[in-house]
Specification:
The structure is a homotetramer. By secondary structure, chain A is an alpha+beta fold. The first copy, chain A, is built from seven helices and 13 strands. In chain A, a hairpin with a 2-residue loop joins strand 5 and strand 6. The first copy, chain A, is globular, with a radius of gyration of 18 Å.
Amino acid sequence: MCRWLAYSGSPLLLDAVLYRPEHSLINQSLYARMGVESTNGDGFGVGWYSADGSGDGTPAVFKDTAPAWNNRNLRELAGHVRSPLFFAHVRASTGSAIQQTNCHPFRHGRWLWMHNGAIADFHRLQRDLCMAVDPALFPCIEGSTDSEVMFYLAVTYGLDQDVPGAVARMVGLVERVGKEHGVSDPLQMTVAVSDGERLWAFRYASEGKSRSLFYSSAAETVRHLHPELPFLGEVSDATRLVVSEPLGDLPGVWNELPEASYAVIPATPGVDYLPFVPEP
Amino acid sequence: MCRWLAYSGSPLLLDAVLYRPEHSLINQSLYARMGVESTNGDGFGVGWYSADGSGDGTPAVFKDTAPAWNNRNLRELAGHVRSPLFFAHVRASTGSAIQQTNCHPFRHGRWLWMHNGAIADFHRLQRDLCMAVDPALFPCIEGSTDSEVMFYLAVTYGLDQDVPGAVARMVGLVERVGKEHGVSDPLQMTVAVSDGERLWAFRYASEGKSRSLFYSSAAETVRHLHPELPFLGEVSDATRLVVSEPLGDLPGVWNELPEASYAVIPATPGVDYLPFVPEP
Amino acid sequence: MCRWLAYSGSPLLLDAVLYRPEHSLINQSLYARMGVESTNGDGFGVGWYSADGSGDGTPAVFKDTAPAWNNRNLRELAGHVRSPLFFAHVRASTGSAIQQTNCHPFRHGRWLWMHNGAIADFHRLQRDLCMAVDPALFPCIEGSTDSEVMFYLAVTYGLDQDVPGAVARMVGLVERVGKEHGVSDPLQMTVAVSDGERLWAFRYASEGKSRSLFYSSAAETVRHLHPELPFLGEVSDATRLVVSEPLGDLPGVWNELPEASYAVIPATPGVDYLPFVPEP
Amino acid sequence: MCRWLAYSGSPLLLDAVLYRPEHSLINQSLYARMGVESTNGDGFGVGWYSADGSGDGTPAVFKDTAPAWNNRNLRELAGHVRSPLFFAHVRASTGSAIQQTNCHPFRHGRWLWMHNGAIADFHRLQRDLCMAVDPALFPCIEGSTDSEVMFYLAVTYGLDQDVPGAVARMVGLVERVGKEHGVSDPLQMTVAVSDGERLWAFRYASEGKSRSLFYSSAAETVRHLHPELPFLGEVSDATRLVVSEPLGDLPGVWNELPEASYAVIPATPGVDYLPFVPEP
């Protein structure tokens, strides 16, 4: 399994959330507490949308197959790049090759996608799932992970028009193909996806026991509870973090996203999350 | 394009042909003379069958995404590993990702496969070709190269029973699928394949102008012509090298394999090569 | 030998000079024209000062031991990072190890340093040169290149107070130590150094035949001569590029820096360069 | 801290001890039990002397900066290389750069050296220790670890003539230089060294609490106690393993090497280890 983090809000130096917190994502690459594996050292990736519009709205992606904890380039980047919306992911391979094209986040046009979890018996379902990908997108699949195939299935199913719908149809297909191959409870996922404007975070598992996922409380609330926190001074109230596991133990900061639900950020006032239901 | 070398004969230290010759394969990684590209620095690989049977007949494969010319591990290996049958390949990517799973040689069970050339407009033919691979083998495809798909198509078409036939059927399919997508002359290849017992080398191009390929003369002939050559003293007369381009300029050592032909080593006395005809 | 590029002027996307020009630095990593080696594939590095002040004036450094031409992370970075002052370097090792700590540019505090050239018989002079480095700086030497030792010698000799003087004293020491070991003409160098405010470029060789080095004409001049150039529209007249070899063949754009001289950018009006004389 | 393993005895496939045992060294790279760090993912290395004499008595060294647990090349090598005497090391950096030249084992001529431990405040002692290295050997230091400097100090002090004496003099120097810099208890080490004929293993710490180190009982004893063990059938009685931590929990197999002692293998009958005393 893996650990990931997604940030949306006021432009922030990546370092502020990747390295500074007590139990930062980089710390989680060595000492994850809630993951199946405590070590997530099979590569990492960050994806960010530029604060100054560089890249014409297309996010930058930086990936490496080495562990995040000892990567000097990542530390350099984190200390010099500011972004209003960025993803970071540390990988623990469940068997697929250690290569950049298997590192998250995955990008297609303006879209970023990252995943923690797995498709059970993927090798048995892989071919049917790949066949369901839009033939025009098939050559875009560069790696050998279930996560990348899930992404291109979601793109195939209309990510551009309707994110929750596309993800629901992707999950519906995975479960149908799983059933056809006698794989009960084929899917396990927490997924983050963004187009640079908004951030969607999904938590779902076929058997109903999905990986942990948390979102941060409104910045004003956190500021009020923890005036000591360094970077909160600068950020807008709409700023949110979604993480595989909390970056610290501060009370009132982290809220668990329930089973079978998804969050959209910036959030509609009063709506922290909505139910997620696969479309068969 | 790439450069490759295949050796079959008396157990030899890899170093003797990878580093020692004037225009060795490692030298070719920086200064290829006959390739489309003079630099082949997008990764490399060696595959060898053990002289002492280690590995139960399965060849070892060592691959790296960095250039061969500065790789210390390759030099160490070459200076300490002896093998009666080994492959070496230096890569010049035509666009696909720089990752170990895209480096040659490819292995499946006891089989090794490497390729120099390309399938034209591969991104357009890729899906149909992948669909033609035995579903049971589909998950074995780990990378994104045309070469690996060609290999699993050949395995699908009976490499185990009939090597020239399986390769002919693979080429026939690629040309048919190419024609269906309006790609004339889709294939360009020099291929080496082995099961650890014998070595097959193919040269073919749809348009009839394939990459260069050479095989060495019988060791006794070379010894006679060039008593100065270091390692020839030790090797059997049946020993042969097949290379993308000659390792030196010695007259009488290197013979070009003609267009649309293939060689089998150990060779049947008097038969240096046979015609290669695709099977539609 | 290596190839390098230094940019100073209006904040620019790295991509504009690293990838866009006909004979860009990335192109030079494969096809250098004026270098001793045409291939510079033994690693690369970029160093940049943030346009928005991120990093508190300390430049970011991104290095990799793989070739620049196929590096996806570099391309991503170049397409999303803007900087008013940046260095880029592609390496051709003269024997020292292929490792990030041997890649240029080197950084110490706010300083960046990169070098093309070599100290002759460095292995014989290395110890004496290292001994001359300020003991407090000795542990900062992480790699095994002559270039890094030259940098820390310059820091030892007062780079902070007087750049040309510190470099002159460093060169003076190298030549004296060389003479002591019977190495005539020990030094060959083109060096770029910056503190984030100004850029200094030096060209010098003990025997008087140093590597090529060019600086660009004033932006207004180039704009006038070549209205077609894409990025010149945006840049200030003080903007300059210093390069191992021209990025194109446009007349009037590139001027050779003479033997034994150095340039300071931003330039004092009317002063393109000054003489460089080692201090024994 | 790190974990290491040294094997001496009947030629064995590296795989038999690197991957097969329940708590193999590769397993220890992810789940060390007795180390300061449970993860040893900052690179690894193996060094082996050829069973067939390839390399003229000089050992081969294979190193990588990535973790051992996911390295395919290491698995390939381990499955195809047999050796009568080999070292393997998984690294947990205490701060120095992640590069091949900082990976163990280190080699000089016919000698291999690896280390687990550290020199306290190394950055303060580094220069004086480097100065004590034979000037002719100084350029051999390619990396930035304390371990490599300890090795070249031992070579300087006569490793070729008297291994225990050279190591005792090296330790004596480190402790003297430490005292001069106000560093009490500067050294912490378990060291393995070999010339291809014999294997020496040292355990020592200035403060007397050194890292764990174990050696295996005579093969006949182990065979008697554990007839189930796979590879013991083939090995000679003189075969021994020395490891940072046991490869399993079998009673009677593993013996702790006491504080301040060293073992020589092949062992003199009745002499499992001797006392180790630094030479001031």
